[in-house]
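Methods — Computational structure assignment.
A single polypeptide chain was analysed. Its primary sequence is given first, followed by the predicted tertiary structure written as structure tokens.
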Amino acid sequence: MSDSNTTDFTNSSPFILLGIPGLEAAHVWISIPFCAMYVIAVLGNFTILFIVKREPSLHEPMCYFLCMLAVTDLVLCMSILPKMLSIFWFNSKEIDFSACLTQLYFINCFAAMESGIFMAMAFDGYVAICHPLRHSTILTNHVVAKIGLAAVLSGCLLVLPYPLLASQWPYCKTNIIPHTYCKHISVVNLACADFRASSHYSLSVTFFVPSMDVVFIAVSYVQILRAIFSLSTKEARLKSFGTCGSHLCAILVFYIPDLFSSVMHRIGNTMPLYFLILIDNVYLLVPPMLHPIIYGVRTKQIWDRLLSLFSHKRT
């Protein structure tokens, strides 16, 4: 087995995902909270999509962006959890080379899209608070479609070099990936060639995309807060805070685990490998689980529609 992993490995051979090294005996127990997060995320995001589709009053820019966010969250969950659970439950550790690159692409692509969608939602909040009378004329369905398309294309095109470059390297060191999914840096580290171009490009994208989005979001919210504090009545200020409160919560849920994961990997030589892998999984699974809860509870129209559905079923 050792020989096959170190000398005979080729690009047509499958990779071996180890799961969480050091915690193999606890894989079944670890799978319980991850499976619960997966179920909550899938049900919650499908519920958001269903309610927005069924309720005509929710056919507005904020809810369109919310639906885009729900779709990206669903893809992220479904890209990771099924394979992870098969490792934990059935010890099914093999993954084809092409499937590994596909998973790698989808995870990074939709994470980049999600950051772009948050930037679009910040712009929607800025227009709604700072220019309420012009909101419907600025953010028409046509403009919303263009913004959504830009977020999708930027994520797809920026991440496309990841699998293209990774597929060019020869892999002859080992086919063992000490992770629960095909993390980009974990895959290219197995190449027996100079992969610095791939490493530098992924590092620049990882830094550039969130940084630009966060700067735009911060500028938008500075303007939003200035507009809110200039309102004459306390009731108007509270209502405006409630409008953008759910978005701020969702942004924090997405970017704080991302920042924490990045910091932990920079000081990774002092951290156990299983801790870093758990952080990676939390970063990708907790936001998709919490986003529908945040928006379902904090957005009055969605909450009211959800309650009416349940009350109708009881009746």
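Note: The beta strands are 15-17, 94-95, 176-177.
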